[in-house]
């Protein structure tokens, strides 16, 4: 965007919420870089919670407190988009699809923020949550179907990551020069490819656990990284690190719209109740 171009009212003079959302993008980026560094430098595979626990001692508690605050705001930003369409739009089917995805992302990152609070005060959060949740689901009537549906959703998420690789639409919300976008494009392609591969493996692990009625076969990010050989794992981790760098780029350059004012929200709620 050229300096002479006027910014919309919801972008000009960024609010505190918008600035904190940038902290959220940065927190997401640092977390992915940490996970990748543990794989490449220490030979450790951790999920998002494990990475937080790894640094959750001594001065590391200050770091994960900052990360937790960032993820909380990032989650709230996604939920705000889901409710009001401030980023996704409002009145077409693609907007509703994006808003549903935003709702899911918001819930996940708010849960991660909750985990950071637990880790700061308790030191650890718990065991393998994916396997625990899968075991609970498999005990239900028709539980295998529920797990297969979850696997299908993750498979669809993986395909969505690969669409981003092909279309490079992650560049659209960035306020930077075309020269900068040329290298950001390849950064994003590598990062989203790695994320897509991880989602595919997690979907496969869930599907196997459903078909074999064995929760121990399910897994999250940590088990997905363990799925690969040592050399391949390093390349996938490098891709996740690049996704983390992309998140830091987004923290700097992404256009972030303000949420609607309280008065407008109240009017929208009143209008819905009158129908």
From TrEMBL:
UniProt keyword list: Membrane, Transmembrane, Transmembrane helix
Membrane-spanning ranges: 25-42, 62-86, 107-125, 145-163, 192-212, 232-249
Name recorded for this polypeptide: DUF1206 domain-containing protein
Pfam families, alphabetized: DUF1206
Biological source species: Sphingomonas telluris
InterPro entries assigned: DUF1206
Keyword Iron: no
DUF1206 domain segment(s): 23-84, 190-254
Keyword Zinc in record: no
């Amino acid at each position: 965007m050229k300096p002479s171009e006027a910014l919309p009212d919801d972008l000009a003079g960024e609010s505190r919420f918008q600035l904190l959302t940038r902290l959220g993008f940065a927190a997401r980026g640092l977390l992915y870089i940490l996970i990748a560094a543990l794989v490449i430098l220490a030979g450790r595979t951790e999920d998002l919670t494990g990475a937080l626990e790894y640094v959750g001692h001594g001065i590391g508690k200050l770091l994960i407190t900052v990360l937790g605050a960032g993820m909380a705001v990032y989650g709230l930003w996604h939920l705000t988009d889901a409710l009001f369409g401030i980023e996704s739009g409002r009145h077409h089917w693609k907007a509703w699809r994006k808003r549903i995805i935003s709702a899911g992302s918001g819930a996940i990152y708010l849960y991660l923020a909750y985990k950071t609070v637990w880790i700061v005060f308790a030191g650890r959060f718990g065991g393998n949550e994916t396997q625990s949740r899968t075991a609970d689901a498999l005990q239900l009537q028709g539980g295998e179907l529920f797990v297969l549906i979850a696997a299908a959703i993750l498979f669809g998420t993986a395909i969505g990551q690969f669409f981003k690789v092909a279309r490079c639409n992650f560049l659209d919300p960035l306020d930077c020069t075309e020269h900068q976008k040329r290298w950001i494009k390849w950064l994003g392609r590598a990062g989203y490819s790695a994320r897509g591969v991880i989602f595919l493996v997690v979907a496969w692990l869930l599907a196997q656990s459903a078909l074999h009625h064995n929760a121990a076969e399910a897994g999250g990010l940590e088990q997905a990284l363990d799925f690969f050989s040592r050399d391949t794992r390093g390349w996938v981790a490098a891709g996740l690190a690049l996704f983390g760098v992309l998140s830091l780029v987004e923290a700097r350059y992404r256009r972030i719209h303000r949420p609607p004012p309280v008065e407008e929200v109240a009017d929208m709620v009143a209008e819905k109740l009158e129908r």
